[in-house]
Design a protein that fits this description.
Oligomer: single chain
Distance between the termini: 9 Å
Number of strands: 9
Order of helices and strands: HEEHHHHHHEEHHEHEEEHE
Structural class: alpha+beta
Helix content: 40-55%
CATH architecture of the largest domain: Orthogonal Bundle
Shape: elongated
Radius of gyration: 29 Å
Number of domains: 2
Largest sheet: 4 strands, antiparallel
Strand order of the largest sheet: 5-4-7-6
CATH class of the largest domain: Mainly Alpha
Number of helices: 11
Strand content: 5-15%
Length: 335
Amino acid sequence: MILNFSRATACLAAFFLLSTAKQTCGAPLFADRIVAKGKGVEVKYSKVEDTLISYKATRATAGEPVPPGLEKELEQSIVERLIATQILTNLATSADITASQTIAVKFIADAKAKATSEEAFNRQIRAGGMSPEQFQAQVQEQSLVKAVIDRELKAKTPISDEQVKKYYDEHPEDFQVPEQLRATHMLFAFKDPVTKIDLSESQIAEKKKLAADVLARVKKGEDFNGLVKEFSEDRSTEHPNGEYTFTKGQMPPEFETAAFTLSTNQISDLVTTRYGQHIIKLHEKIPSKKAELAPMMEKIRETLQLEAVQKALPGLIEKLRKEADVVVTLEESKP
């Protein structure tokens, strides 16, 4: 078994056990083993161990603990990844560093946008065994790796319009747009629209009564769009008039079930979801069809380029490893 001593623990052990040898706390109790080395490359076991601990914590948080028998294989994979990271970042130019900063900022912003709050975002990071500072450093490092790969490989693997069209023609199933509905709804929210805090039971009861009153007015023929503007609490800036175009799986299930049973220009009864109560008007059913090529061109090009880069990357890493004379001693260095 390999014991994992913190620096404080190591110093304390040195004081009590090795005081006669006058060992100071400036040196660790055990030397950090080098498990891979080459020109500009040095991987220490402590880094491998820290990465493995972080990975296991992330898997445990997701309810998928790492089986003990896989730890040796994971250590080897981590060493290879750390070697690849070092030999790629050794190639970084000032332009790569600038590009990596943009990549890192976008990645972190996207990750935060998926969390409910800054606090929740930081909790997720800590659950993965890292501090926010460590997470940011890791993102910056991997962003630099991406910038180097983009310069070394992406620019050298251009994808032509002919390649894009060929893929489009040969993979029609990838571009099939399912049936869509275009509908407008008005929302009577069960949360405060500003604070997002759940309303009290009495407030929810008032909302339900208002929704029923408005539905009665709709049924009597009052202008639906006018009532939406007057009463709806949908604050989406992308859908300011409460109009959405969607496929199955994009809306709350109760909303979706009701909407897909409506006929064109038909108005639903009250529909309750976790967001509140809705009144839905269906405008149009858009049949399933194959997406047009033009709006998909760049997305296809990006996918094909990514595949080309992934195919070429192992060759680049192997070439750089040979140039750096990298030697892995992970097994040899274990006690």
